[in-house]
Amino acid sequence: MRPYHQIPIFECGEPLIAIPLELFAVESPHPYEKLGAPYGDRSPYYLRQSVIENLIQAQNYLDVLHPNWRIQIFDAYRPIAVQQFMVDYSFAQAVHDRGLAEVELSPNQRQEIWEAVYAIWAVPSLDEKTPPPHSTGAAVDVTLVDDSGEIVNMGSPIDEMSGRSHPDYYANSDRPETQNYHAHRQLLQDVMLKAGFQRNPREWWHFSVGDQMWAWLNNQANRANPVTARYGRLA
Ligand SMILES: C[C@@H](N)C(=O)N[C@H](C)C(=O)O
Ligand SMILES: [Zn+2]
Q1: Which is the closest atom of ligand 1 to the Cα of 132?
Q2: What number does the ligand 1 atom closest to the CA of 134 have?
Q3: 159: Cβ below 6 Å to ligand 1?
Q4: Can you tell me the ipTM of this complex?
Q5: pLDDT for 29
Q6: Which of 32, 33, 203, 208 to mutate to test ligand 1, by most ligand atoms within 8 A of the CB atom?
Q7: Residue 235: its pLDDT value, please?
Q8: Per the record, where is site Transition state stabilizer (predicted)?
């Protein structure tokens, strides 16, 4: 359980619809489809209707600050089966990166690796009270592309299992290059928050609106007017 799982969900029934990809930049091929994630007849490029409206607003704010820059969509809707696939894939990858073999892991090694995986991935829970954020169609992983079509350097790749994923990792840096990474993360956060999103406190790229994490973050900032979640897990 994460703290945001305490937030009640009152599903509003808004449809999951296709993102108008022509308004954004898009990571292609899709990073998890490329790995063989089991989408079936679903597409990762879908979100709830008003979440798409918020994302278009964020792109409009970016247009004012940086004409011809684009929000790049890395991932959006994620069925539970895909969440499970990515959690298992990330565990196997972390074992490999440590030069270990899964069958030979000690209980402590296994626990350390699972903790690293679940530091950035949500549990693929089937409980309707604790849905993974992306399975609600209200969460999106994004970065920025500049006016020459280059992906803006944020100082770490999306989905890296390390401290560099923390949004403020470069906040107190005294090197111009790493100060730039922080400025880029701030720019992304500014346009997304202005459009109504909240950012995952553990990941510079993950934003949502209307889900449990969004409600919990709103309530942390404004305890006088608590909100609930309007998007639960999609079938
Ligand atoms: C790991 C990243 N892509 C992500 O989406 N993390 C959140 C917490 C999730 O799994 O919902
Ligand atoms: Zn995410």
Answers
A1: 11
A2: 11
A3: yes
A4: 0.98
A5: 95
A6: 203
A7: 76
A8: 78
Q: How far is the CA of 134 from the centre of ligand 1 (A)?
A: 7
pLDDT given for residue 86 in this prediction: 98
* Residue 63 assigned to a binding site: no
Residue of the nearest CA to atom 3 in ligand 1? Answer: 159
pLDDT along the chain (235 residues), means of 10: 96 98 96 98 98 98 98 98 98 97 97 97 97 98 98 98 97 93 98 98 98 98 96 93
For residue 142, the ligand closest to its alpha carbon is 2
SS (H, E, C) the chain: CCHHHHCCECCCCCCEEECCHHHCEECCCCCCCCCCCCCCCCCCCEEEHHHHHHHHHHHHHHHHHCCCCEEEEEECCCCHHHHHHHHHHHHHHHHHHCCCCHHHCCHHHHHHHHHHHHHHCCCCCCCCCCCCHHHHCCEEEEEEECCCCCECCCCCCCCCCCHHHCCCCCCCCCCHHHHHHHHHHHHHHHHHHHCCCEECCCCCCEEECCCHHHHHHHHHHCCCCCCCECCCCCC
- Atom 6 in ligand 1: residue holding the nearest Cα: 121
pTM for the structure as a whole: 0.97
Q: What is the pLDDT of residue 153?
A: 98
Domains, in order of start, for the chain = 9-233 (3.30.1380.10)
203 is catalytic: yes
The answer to whether the CB of 206 is under 6 A from ligand 1 is: yes
Residue with tokens 């849905």: 131
CA distance linking residue 9 with residue 41, whole number of Å: 26
